[in-house]
Amino acid sequence: MRGDLVARSHKIRDRILQWVGIPCGIGIGSTKTLAKLANHIAKTAERKPGSYPEKLAQVCNLEALSPEERDAVLVATAVNQVWGVGRQITKQLNADGIYTALDLVRLDAATVRGKWSVVLERTVRELQGTPCIDLEHTPAAKKEIACTRSFGHYVLEQHHLAEAITEFASRAAEKLRKQNSLAGRILVFIRTSPFRPEAQYSRTTVVPLRRPTADTAAFVSAALAGLRQIYRPGFKYAKAGVMLLELQPDSQQQCELDLADEHGEDRGKLMSALDGLNQRYGKGTVLMASAGAEGTRRVWSMKQERRTPGYTTRWADMPVARA
Questions:
Q1: Which of 67, 98, 103, 323 has the least CB density, counted as fewest CB within 10 Å?
Q2: What are all long-range contacts of 61-67, with beta carbons under 8 Å and residues at least 24 apart?
Q3: Which has the closest alpha carbon to 127: 148, 102, 149?
Q4: Domain co-membership, 58 together with 97
């Protein structure tokens, strides 16, 4: 890229704000870690005036700073604000007198590797300007896929929980197929609200599948079996969810003779048709029968009173200016 990067970044930020309505910060650095740190500085400088120089608000280009200015910025940044430095590592670093990003930058990378880990060594080298972490142009496939929700109202009956679990399993299955994966197990949980002075109950179970699959029907069947195992009457349930486990690429699977399916139906085509209809006509257009047919009027549906209107996707939400 050529030209004034800061000026170009401000134009990009202004366009995002105008078109999407979301303010953002832009960070520029020679490595991924420095760019993330610059992004943190850009946001903090705007939200907390005085924490960093005013000129770094909204857009921060660490490469344009003098060595003295960069050191001043790093010394004003706590070490736990550096991408890749977690809570436990922060405690260990603080115990050795390392409190700021500048302290971390001045460490010897080889020493960091011997005393802590290769991961922290990469972070130090990145802060020193040596690229060690490649940019991901496409996100890596998830190792677990979860779909959980807090209910808009307490749920008492098992059949209402079954509707919620069915929808959650269906959504998780759709996400699984989008990344071309299969799952070998499904986790199901239900719980009451820990913030209410009422009888508490929380249970989780993991149901293994016959073989790794991406079939919504298989997930729903297993999830409902798990729900029947952990459900207890007499409690006010506030949240439930499912998680797909043991994910693997759909290009690698163990096959077997499906003796139970005498018609030899192609479940893959059925799932593709299901996803296609829901993508074209909206979520919930085609769903499993156990999810219920009451739509947003279901007992467990989220409240969403403060949901942002769909100005660009729903005619009913389009603002109208009157003379």
A1: 323
A2: 61/5, 61/6, 61/9, 61/28, 61/29, 62/27, 62/28, 62/29, 62/30, 62/34, 62/37, 62/38, 63/28, 63/29, 63/30, 64/5, 64/6, 64/28
A3: 102
A4: yes
User: Does residue 320 belong to any structural domain of this protein?
Assistant: no
Whether residues 109 and 82 fall in one domain: yes
3-state secondary structure of 121: helix
Structural domain including 47 reads 5-127
Cβ–Cβ < 8 Å for 161, 190: yes
**pLDDT computed for residue 270 by the predictor:** 79
In a domain, 305, yes or no: no
d(CA 21, CA 39): 19
Q: How many Å apart are CA 207 and CA 187, to the nearest integer?
A: 6
| pLDDT tens digits, 165-207 | 999 999 999 999 999 999 999 999 999 999 888 889 999 999 9
Q: Are residues 195 and 119 in the same domain?
A: no
pTM recorded for the entire structure: 0.59
Query: Is 171 found in the same domain as 47?
Result: no
Asked whether residue 288 is domain-assigned, the answer is yes
Tell me the C-alpha distance between 166 and 242, whole Å: 9
- CA-based nearest residue to 239, from 148, 160, 168: 148
Range 110-138 average pLDDT:
87
Residue 322 tokens read as: 């009157």
Confidence of residue 262 (pLDDT cuts 50, 70, 90): very low
Domain tally for the chain? 2
Task: Give the end of a domain, one of 80, 98, 127.
Answer: 127
Distance CA 211, CA 254 (A): 8
The average confidence (pLDDT) of the chain is 87
At 207-216, the pLDDT tens digits run 999 889 999 9
Q: Tell me whether residue 102 is in a domain.
A: yes
Backbone dihedral region of 295: left (phi > 0), alpha (psi from -120 to 50 degrees) or beta? left
Residues 75 and 197 in one domain: no
